[in-house]
């Protein structure tokens, strides 16, 4: 990108503009990408749910496909900030901003999503795991932009849920938990994805929690509690104005258990 590290991409602006107001970012150049055609879409093809990077959060909220087959994404789309922000904010911006308090990064980790980036050297695809490097830092190079988000297509016995705790509606999360699971023909957990919001320098993939339920039935309350405990162990929150670290860890446990149970109910109903 012309301007190098001193330039910033402007999509919806709902993450970048607050940083400019707070003087936490001072780019010498803003590059508005809203004029690039073909980056606003939601569709299933080639084994993936594909979302263009300029797709607005409000489009996710209004999408029947998202609501019926990917409720974990719909959960976030109706809770992000307020209608004004959702009408302007983009999927790509929410993800590529690298803010651990944003909602979609944890969901993408739970869904094992992939991201397509375009730049001067061509196109490349990156997994969500490893994409979030540090606070406000991702694996995108300075001359790349995120163009597409790919989520493995939902299977018939899969379901997901995203729950977060916030001080007031529209505020950043105190803690959040994204859970995506799939069941085998015997009703056992075949795959579990757990992503955590706002409890570390990046969104967190709780790997030990993901492994704890494999091959077990979701009627095992002890196993469900163990997933919540392991998710809390994966969290590394700090004490701040939104609460003490120990409180946030406990909320991760509670939210993960609740999210897991709701994801299971949805999986039994075919994802809805």
Kindly describe this structure:
α9 packs across α10 (245-268). The strands form four sheets. Strands 3-4-9-5-6 form a five-stranded antiparallel β-sheet. Strands 10-11-12-13 form a four-stranded antiparallel β-sheet, with helices on both faces. A two-stranded parallel ribbon has the order 1-2. Helices cover 32% and strands 27% of the residues. The mean pLDDT is 92. The chain has two domains: 38-152, 2-Layer Sandwich (Uridine Diphospho-n-acetylenolpyruvylglucosamine Reductase, domain 3); 158-268, CO dehydrogenase flavoprotein, C-terminal domain (Enolase-like, domain 1, 2-Layer Sandwich). The protein has 272 residues and is α+β, with helices and mostly antiparallel strands.
What integer value in Å does the Rg equal?
Answer: 18 Å
Distance between the termini: 41 Å
Number of domains: 2
Q: What share of the residues does DSSP label as strand, in percent?
A: 25-35%
Number of helices in the DSSP assignment: 10
Read across the widest sheet, the strand sequence of neighbours is 3-4-9-5-6
Low-pLDDT segments, ≥5 res: none
Sketch the topology as an H/E string, one letter per element.
EHEEEHHHHHHEEEEEEEEEHHH
Tell me how many strands there are. Answer: 13
CATH class of the largest domain: Alpha Beta
Mean pLDDT: 92
- State the shape: globular
Q: What name does CATH use for the topology of the largest domain? A: Uridine Diphospho-n-acetylenolpyruvylglucosamine Reductase, domain 3
Biggest pleated sheet: 5 strands, antiparallel
Which structural class do the helices and strands define? alpha+beta
The proportion of residues forming helix, as a percent range, comes to 25-40%
